[in-house]
Specification:
134 residues, elongated, 5-stranded mixed β-barrel
Length: 134
């Protein structure tokens, strides 16, 4: 390989490394700069999923969901908390820890990431929920 081709190859590889480094830096700055915490109700989440607006509205948010408990039950994937909602759509939370005293009708706040939500036939399932303790 002659020196001219080697110089071109080194220059192109250097430019690629530079572009990759800048992309990483600016991508990281965007990701950290767009982090937000959003307080929402179970009804807002269920209706957003029903209207196909959930991911555009909540995907990049950490969600604080406050509402009344409709039920808590065990399922194949662990413990699921169901919030009371209106309009036929449900908001469900997969819990990372078992709630010690979460009776029906009690108001709780859970923390979860919008990006981890899944559409289910009856509404929205929020995974990795953590019950906020007072």
């Amino acid at each position: 390989m002659n020196k001219g081709r080697l110089l071109i190859l080194v220059t192109v590889l250097g430019m690629l490394v530079g572009v990759a480094a800048m992309s990483f830096f600016f991508g990281d700055a965007y990701a950290v700069g767009s982090l937000s915490v959003r307080q929402v109700t179970p009804d807002q989440l269920a209706q957003a999923m029903k209207a196909d607006e959930f991911y555009s509205d909540f995907r990049e948010d950490t969600l604080l969901v406050r509402g009344q408990v409709a039920s808590v039950y065990g399922s194949v994937g662990g413990i699921t908390l169901e919030f009371q909602t209106h309009g036929g759509m449900k908001t469900l939370c997969g819990l990372e820890q078992y709630p010690m005293a979460t009776p029906k009708g009690k108001t709780v706040t859970v923390v979860t990431e919008g990006a981890n939500a899944q559409r289910v036939s009856s509404g929205v399932f929020l995974s990795n929920c953590v019950i906020e303790t007072p």
